[in-house]
Amino acid sequence: MGLRTTVDIPCGAFICEYAGELLTLGEAKRRLELIDKRGQMNYVLCLHEYSKLENITDCRQPAQTTIVDPSRRGNIGRYLNHSCEPNCEVLAVRINSPIPKIGIFAKQNISANEELCFHYGGEESFNGFSEGKPCLCTARNCTGVLPNTRV
Questions:
Q1: Which of 47, 59, 120, 139 is the most interior residue, by most CB within 10 Å?
Q2: Alpha-carbon distance 135 to 106, whole Å?
Q3: Angle subtended at Cα 141 by Cα 128 and Cα 82, rounded to the nearest 5 degrees
Q4: Is 104 within 8 Å of 15 (Cβ atoms)?
Q5: Is pLDDT above 90 for 49?
Q6: What is the structure's pLDDT at 87?
Q7: 148, 119 Cβ separation under 8 angstroms
Q8: What is the pLDDT of residue 2?
Q9: Helix segments in 25-123, DSSP class H
Q10: Average pLDDT, the chain
Q11: What's the pTM value of the predicted model, to 2 decimals?
């Protein structure tokens, strides 16, 4: 089903915030276990930010992780589906705070009636997922599996 735009959106335009409750790592793990146990929809988004600093030797370790759960208090952003060929991207946006807002931006020009979608695992981080729920995006380069970010 997903979320479709009713207007043309230019490349780079802000679409919406992925809003919800900010979670600690422990609370995120607890909620995700409960979601799996109950067979509920999972809207928890885990944004990993990486830093290229000289004193950081392992660039695979995130410098900061922000975890948002919009299931209880969120907005329309939670309805964007995954695609292996997305037209949106998720970026950290800071406004007078070290804790970022999670912004969804147009990655390309998007036409009215087009579905809005982003890559759930972050396109740069894909490294051949083999386990998880089946991906139904039908993109040319579909991996067949939804990315599952570990928290």
A1: 120
A2: 22
A3: 80
A4: yes
A5: no
A6: 97
A7: no
A8: 86
A9: 25-38
A10: 86
A11: 0.84
Alpha helices in 24-136 (DSSP H): 25-38
> What is the rounded CA–CA span in Å between residue 60 and residue 9?
33
Beta bridge partners of 64: 49
- Give the end-to-end CA distance of the chain in Å, rounded to a whole number: 27
The dihedral region occupied by 5, where left means phi > 0, alpha psi between -120 and 50, and beta the remainder, is beta
**Rounded distance between C-alpha atoms, residue 32 and residue 150, angstroms:** 10
Distance, CA of 142 to CA of 93 (rounded, Å): 29
Check residue 111 and give its pLDDT.
Answer: 98
Q: What mean pLDDT is predicted for residues 95-119?
A: 95
pLDDT per residue over 52-83, tens digit each?
A: 665 655 556 677 889 999 999 999 999 999 99
